[in-house]
Design a protein that fits this description.
- With 199 residues, this protein is mainly alpha-helical.
- The protein is 71% helix and 0% strand.
Length: 199
């Protein structure tokens, strides 16, 4: 294994990361457990950061685990010719985030109806959580107002650090659509932020 160092006589350092980056993983091979262990070591930490930013620290670990369980069950759907495995994993995670938010919103609405209180606006709730400077509040509200598809593209590129090709794989869209959507979203957010700071 060239370019990988480790302790003499011991296992090579960073074997999982290097293997995950060198070639597409064989998710259909005989040693699926070892392959998924490598994938987990290579991607779980960054994936958790992305998920924690989307749904909070308390839920992130569960969604990371669920992401890898879904990936294991759907490993035959992975096509390494389309994009790296990282984009595929983030696509699964993003779908799990959407499902979690839908369930949480339904539960909150049902609870509020049961006690007879009016339902708070979800965008207001998101904006109220942001405890930062005025620009941060404006930006958070603007992001909350984005369509789900636009928000996913923005957060997958900015928080998760995925390339447009990886985001395209994650969302099942052409890379050109992702790049166009990302440009449009960034331009819109910049205009809103500029407008607010000039008031």
């Amino acid at each position: 294994m060239s370019g990988v160092t480790g302790t003499p006589g011991g296992p090579p350092a960073n074997r999982c990361v290097t293997t995950a980056l060198e070639k597409p993983p064989d998710l259909r091979g005989p040693d699926v457990t070892a392959v998924f262990a490598e994938l987990f070591d290579a991607h779980a930490r960054q994936l958790r950061g992305y998920l924690a930013g989307r749904v909070g620290e308390a839920v992130a670990d569960d969604l990371v685990a669920e992401t890898f369980l879904v990936a294991l069950r759907r490993r035959h759907d992975y096509d390494p010719t389309r994009a790296p495995v990282k984009g595929w994993l983030y696509g699964i995670a993003t779908n799990l985030v959407r499902e979690h938010v839908r369930k949480e919103t339904r539960g909150r609405r049902a609870g509020l109806r049961a006690v007879g209180r009016p339902e708070p606006d979800h965008d207001v709730t998101v904006a109220e959580r942001v405890d930062a400077e005025r620009a941060s509040r404006v930006l958070a509200a603007a992001i909350a107002d984005l369509r789900d598809e636009d928000r996913d593209v923005l957060l997958l590129t900015s928080w998760a650090g995925l390339t447009p090709a990886e985001v395209a794989e994650a969302l099942g869209e052409p890379a050109s659509t992702v790049r166009s959507r990302l440009h449009r979203v960034r331009t819109r957010l910049q205009a809103q932020l500029t407008e607010e700071t000039q008031r």
